[in-house]
Structures are given as C-alpha cells and as structure tokens.
Automatic annotation (TrEMBL), chains A, B:
One Gene Ontology term, aspect cellular component: cytoplasm
SUPFAM superfamilies cross-referenced by the UniProt entry: Chorismate mutase II (SSF48600)
Name under which the protein is recorded: Chorismate mutase
Biological or metabolic pathway of the protein: Metabolic intermediate biosynthesis; prephenate biosynthesis; prephenate from chorismate: step 1/1
PANTHER family with a match to the protein in the record: CHORISMATE MUTASE
GO molecular function: chorismate mutase activity; protein homodimerization activity
One matching Pfam family: CM_2
Length: 262, 262
C-alpha cells in the first residue's frame, strides 16, 4: 500500500504507472498512521524543554534533545536506505550518508526535480508551535525521551503525508497535462492551486479523520459504557487536516508542478 | 500514565508508592500501543530477508538489516537517556553509552537486581519466529527499511509490556510479602507462578485486546458498510496475549521475585 503501483510495459523497460486509486488508498491508510501517532503522543504533556531548550552536554552543538534525537535517528535511517525511497524526505540531512546495505531500486515515478521539494523545516515549526499544543495537555512530566520518540513518529507521518503531494501532482499532471502546462509556464501558482482543489473531497477527508480519531482514540472496555472520552479531540484532528495538512500537501503539489517542465 | 506514581512521604525522602491501579492503567494503555504497532506492521508482508539475511556491506559485522538498525537506534536512544528509565530494557546494549543530556532522576521503585532481568533475546526470537508470521501476510515486497522500523516499534512495545512484570511483581510483593517470601527462599518457581496467576483477569485481558484489535483495525469510512475486515485478526491478537505476552510477563515477575530478597 505504501508503494507506487508498478507495471511492466512490455517494452522491456519497467515503467511506473501511478494511479489515482493507489495514491488515494495510500493517503487513506496514512490517516490511520497519523491518528495513531497523535494518540500515542497525547500520552505525554507538551514537555517543551525537550524541543526548546539547548541542554546538550557533550555533543558540542546547541540543539535541543528532540533535534539531536531526530538528527541522529535520520542518519541511522539513511544508512539502511530510507531516503532512497521517494516517499521519504529527511528533516535535517544535507548530506545523506550512503546505505550500508544493498538498496532497493525504486523505479523513477517522479520528475527528478522532486528531490528539491522539501518543506520539512516548515512542518517542524508548525508542528511544535501550532499543532502540538492543540492536541496535548500543557505541562511537563519529565518524560523527554519518550516524548521525543513520539514526536519523531508524528513528524515523519506528517512529512510523508504532505510530501505525498508530489505523487498526487504527478498523476494529476499526467492525466491532463494540457490543463496544467499553461499555468506552469506562467508560474501561476493561484491557477495551479485552483486546479488542484476539490472542496468536496477535502470535506470528506476531514470528516473521515474525525471519525478515525473517535474510533481509534476511545477507551475500549469489555463492558460498554456511556462515557465517550477521546484520547485526542476528533474535531482537532479534523481541523489539523483542514487548516494545515491539506493546504501543505497542496503547497507541495504546486511546488512540484512548478518544476515539472524543467 | 507511563510513570510510577510518586509521593512525598513527608520524611524529606521522596518515596515511591507503586499502586496496582496505576500499574493496571499503564498496562491497559500499553495494549493500545501494542495493537497499533501490530496494525502498522501488517501493512507489509513478512519481508524475512530484512531480519534473516546478513547483507551488510560496509559495517564489518554480519548482522541482518533489522539487527543493525535496532542496535544503532538503541545507541542513539541510550544517548538521550532512554535506558535510565526502569521501564525500558535494551535488546543489544551490553555497554549502554552515557546520556549526552542531563538525565531525569527516576526514584528507585524496584529492587536493584531488576536490572539483571532482561529476556529481550527470547522476545526477539519469539517475535520473528512465532508471532510475526501469525499477523502479517507471507511474502516479500522489498520494503525492508519501513519493515525494520515497524518491527522495532513492535519489539519495544512488547518488551516494555513484558518487563513491566517487574513493577507488577514489586507491588504484589509489597502487598503481601508474607505470601511470597517462603516461595522465594525455597526458589519455588511453581509456587510463585501460582501466586501470580489470576485466570479471570487473564481472560478479561484477552477479551479486551481482541476488542481493541476489532476497533482499531477496522476500515473507518464516512458511510458505514457491512464489510467487517480487520487489518490484524483480533483472535490472533488475543492468542498472542494468552500464549506469549501474559506467560512471558509472569516469567519476568518470577525472575524478579527470585532476586527480590538478595
């Protein structure tokens, strides 16, 4: 489900067929991952010293615990080949270390310029400054290590979803290049945004993630009770999708399309 | 919820009060984490080359991709202080590197010998040989990096749950030392196992995790349909608890109690 549908064109070359169905299926499945990661993060309060303070003792740089953790984990993940997958975009790696394992070959599905579309710095800032305070309790319980691990899971799930816009844009472009080419050549981001916007679909996504947060964030008991409390507010999840995730995904789509004819 | 309840005894020393309620609450919350991690892992087929083959190119040792990944990640996690938390037990770290950040002080809740109870090697073997084939599809889709990351999440969730037996044993011992001491002194593991077994509670746990797998693993749609398919078979999750997780937790409880009077 996380993969792009591949087919052999019969010409001997392995051609990549992106279908809107397979992309939609992946995006729907990624909603579960995002909701799970929010629920897991909500076990802990904000714990802002983990990502605000520079409390590093020996590492020589002045990053927060969370930034140190994410940087180091990304290096390990790069070593096993994570960033050869066009669905994954690093937060900090300017120089991605090579994989120490034989890596999988991903048949090219995107325009080569896709690599230069990476809005993770923005996702990082939005996540810590705007999203996190919406769905976790304020406070500090000292559980910085677990918090950093949970934040990493959220950040990577959000980043994957948002950068999946590259695949969405590619398949939409391939379906109707004549619609997109004039706007791309004119660098008309507003026209592109209009072409990429389907309000009914967006409303459906927002409703579905609300229902997922209700379903996955309830207290499951053997004997059903009437108390409906959720580990993460379903309306907040819907709002995060509507105000941030969907617009940021479309931003990635536009950024990708602007490079599509290079 | 992940923390041990602490209270100030008023004597100036911070005393740790373990309550069976807080431990039960944590174990129940950990069920969600375990079910989430299984559902996320089930996105991928078995992908056995990730954890069976030794395909490492440059690292000089002959570990599988998954083992390499877990070892390296544990080093980073140790550096931010993960293993100073008595709830966390490493899989591979014989020499845990010191934290590079000021670490949280965990007031001692367990007997110092708790550190020597670590059955992660066994958990690792059982997970890959017995559990994983039960809840993922057979096959190989090449997604080894995502698979290794999902396996790590499952392994750490299982390890935390099973080693939480130390806290369970400690609170049970404190509640009725007179019941446990004779069996501990006699090293009578059978008698200890009997004292620690409550079949009704175990049945309730198995039913609850089944319901959690049904709830969290369903396809949530905006329009309700009749199709009930689950991402992970709820009966399998119940069986994994009954045949492995609960017995292994009790094994940890016994191992801990055997050292409790040292």
């Amino acid at each position: 489900m996380e993969r792009v549908v591949e087919s052999d064109s019969g010409s001997g070359e392995s051609d990549v067929v992106l279908s809107l169905d397979s992309i939609r299926e992946s995006l729907i499945r990624q909603e579960d991952t995002i909701v799970f990661s929010f629920i897991e993060r909500a076990k802990f309060p904000l714990n802002s010293p983990a990502f605000e303070d520079s409390r590093c003792l020996h590492s020589g740089n002045s990053s927060s615990l969370t930034e140190f953790f994410v940087r180091e984990i990304e290096i390990i993940q790069a070593k096993v080949g994570r960033y050869e997958n066009p669905e994954e975009n690093p937060f900090f790696l300017d120089n991605i270390p090579p994989s120490v394992f034989p890596t999988r070959k991903y048949p090219p599905a995107l325009h080569p310029k896709a690599l230069s579309v990476n809005i993770n710095q923005r996702i990082w800032d939005i996540y810590f400054k705007e999203l996190l305070p919406l769905f976790v309790k304020p406070g500090d319980d000292g559980n910085y290590v677990s918090t950093a691990a949970s934040d990493l899971a959220c950040l990577q799930a959000l980043s994957r979803r948002i950068h999946y816009g590259k695949f969405v844009a590619e398949v939409k472009f391939r379906d109707a290049p004549q619609d997109y080419e004039p706007a791309i050549r004119a660098k008309d981001t507003e026209a592109l945004m209009k072409l990429l916007t389907f309000e009914k679909v967006e409303e459906m996504v927002k409703k579905r993630v609300q229902k997922k947060a209700e379903t996955f964030g309830q207290d499951v008991k053997c004997i059903s009770g009437d108390d409906k409390s959720y580990k993460v507010d379903p309306l907040i999840v819907s709002r995060i999708y509507g105000e941030w995730l969907i617009p940021l995904t479309k931003l990635v789509e536009v950024e990708y399309l602007l490079r599509r004819l290079d």
